[in-house]
UniProtKB/TrEMBL annotation:
Signal peptide: none annotated. NCBIfam families: L-ribulokinase, PRK04123.1. CDD domains: ASKHA_NBD_FGGY_L-RBK (cd07781). This is Ribulokinase.
Amino acid sequence: MNANNYVVGVDFGTLSGRAVVVRVSDGAELGSAVHEYTHRVIEQTLPGSDVKLGPDWALQSPQDWIDVLKIAVPAAIAAAGVEPEQVIGIGTDFTACTVLPTTADGTPLCFETPELPHAWPKLWKHHAAQPHADRINELAARRGESWLPRYGGKISSEWEFAKGLQLLEEAPDVYARTERWIEAADWIIWQLTGVESRNICTVGYKGIFQDGAYPSEEFLAELNPGFAGFVGKLATGSVGDDVNGVTVAPLGGLAGRLTGQAATWTGLPEGIAVAVGNVDAHVTNAAADAVRPGQMVAIMGTSTCHVMPSDQHAEVPGMCGVVRDGIVPGLWGYEAGQSAVGDIFAWFVDNFGHDGHEQLTALAEKQAVGQHGLVALDWFGGNRSVLVDHNLSGVIIGQTLATKPEDVYRALIESTAYGARMIVETFEKSGVPVEEFIVAGGLLKNPFLMQVYADVLRRPLSVIGSDQGPALGSAIHAAVAAGAYPGIEEAAAAMGKRTEAAYVPDEARADAYDRLYAEYRRLHDFFADGQMLHTLRAIRNEAHA
């Protein structure tokens, strides 16, 4: 039966959305299409206006997401050459935490008041809520909140509560109108099914939902009396509970059936299965058939997210979170990450590397390890793990009048590899072994970068067997939701793919990198308190005011 059936996976990324049509029996990808967001990332001014945004703001438009359903999905079906009637399910994934305020029926507030910045969805890389995250962390530590260690001791400015507190204190009128504060991953499912739900992944990692509960009303009121009822805007209870008609749904579950309106948008049959929403990083584990304990998947693109299922429960310093059932049911799901990776390389090329990525890579890979005399901190977008401080910034040490663009470019690549090694070592020191390191994402296209990571990490790198990892993972979840497989593990085994040990470390280069990594650690620890870097950021922000 599965040989004649197909599913669609839709990946909503930072700059575009892509759809892929996948055969249920073996995971073959038969057709795909990409829709570039019209509004891309909204960072300077609101669309169609001169309303300026402050430092570290990053917004998106919900209309761009709907356009992906209208444009990319039908195009992918056409490219695949299959009949829409052969499609039995659709699954989606989203960047996270990307969160938006809506009315009770799901209407985004930016559709009603587009002139108000806080009415728009805040993208994952909106870091302007760092002061609010700082206050949440300080109060949680002082009160000894049991949930704080589940997030490595700090919650992020990217997440639902920090952004929600920013909304309350900077735009109380918008906060008052907000009847739902919802992840885009769940909002898009609402649009597809007409049923509101919350997936366990975003609820757990981004919504501080642990052991069946959110932070207490007492805790929230101590932050700000007006914040006491914030959880009511999330409208969820424990897994399987029904609170205000909304449930926390398990991954791979059936969120609902495709509505007539969504069928018109996508060209798919009304009533097919719609899988529970998920996060782009976490859904990729299924695409790489990495759903067993100890398989860490690094999704490397503009940023890197490290996700891993494990049968061990531990409190790992600086992790983004550990959530039961957060990647696959029955296991603990861990998440860590680096706020900027590809973004760092793009920043350098756009501003200083006129030769472009390919030429800089060709020059950089001719160098011996350490030849440039540099070491850098990969904090150009802040530090997600293990310091959880988005007010940190990048540092490059060792430049001279002889330093060339390719020297800096290579040092920046190496800095991100050092950051990844820091994350892996922190997990293993905490008693959570990393058995296999698997790479997915757009940076797989750079073999030199992959070899640097293998050498720095001193371990083989496996690579995913798809260019569309999140979209394939979403399709696999759709197959489970449609009943084609009994669970994510079975579907991943049949439809997922990876190449083991695609890159193997060179012993001599690895030894040389150990010396440089030791200097990275010294630099990391020296600037970790943030005193100098925070002061520089504050001076910058004052100058912008």
